[in-house]
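Course assignment 3, question 2. Fill in each field.
Student: A.L.
Task: Predict the tertiary structure for the chain below.
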Amino acid sequence: MAKILHVSDKHVTIYIKIRGKMQHGGKRMDKHLNSIVINNSDTIVKDWLVEVSKNRHNDYTSAISEDLFESTNREFVNVIFSSLEKQGITSELDDFSEKLINLGWPLSYLTDGLQAFRRVTINFILSQSEKVDSDHLSKVLDMVDNWVDPIINQLVNEYSGSWEHIVSLQRVALQELSAPLIPVMENITIMPLIGTIDTERAKLIMENLLEGVIKHNADVVLIDITGVPVVDTMVAHHIIQAAEAVRLIGSTCILVGIRPEIAQTIVNLGIDLGKFPTKSSLRKGFQAALEMTNRKIVHEKGSDEGIESLLDSLNGE
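Answer field:
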């Protein structure tokens, strides 16, 4: 027969529907232990609420509104009992973990909550036992473990899988933004680089450069390393390779954004950058690119301010 529980305390009101006999892994729970859990589910839930609320003001849930915390706990405990009833395999588990991911809640909320459920259930069963010996304790521990462990495994797997999917999408998006090629004028493009350049990113830089030069019909490409914190032998090697590849398809690379400390590092490492032009700033590099494409800046009356503003914006000044 189904039993409806109405559990209330200062944190949460919970309605739980439980059927009489729960099974897991094809093994019927001990009838006596089963009746203890079913007949005292309201007490177990209250004890669980106390456990999960203990550190409410000291952990990640302190910034969460009372209503959201209450509704999430309500859903969580219903998922737990539903999973026990259905042998740990329910769509509610997957839906609940996906909801928490979307809310940005950490995995520890799930694992801490289930470990708290394990503790309060074991403690309550033992408190109702007339005699607690090693055999009885072992039976109780095994029974509760058989309830809780599959739920933990399924929630962790679902949670981890969803996070891996999100991280994978973010990685793809980051890669697409990590080496952009921006056409600024006819036959002139700029590739601003920010952050560390590793082998994987260097390959992406090479691909984007070659594809972009062809797509935009660029004669000059400005590679701006102002935002690259460290230029070592590997980074310089990747940049030289990219510039050489661009040269082979008929275009010219200008390396810009060489700060004094980077220039000193390049010299100390004995890196040869003599095969393609270098400039200290994007502004100077853009002026050189104009000259290479047979253009120059003509200062006309009333237009000086606009041109200077354009160059300053390109130089980040």
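Instructor remarks: Residues 3-176 form a domain with the Globin-like fold (CATH 1.10.490.10). The chain has two domains: 3-176, 182-315.
Grade: pending
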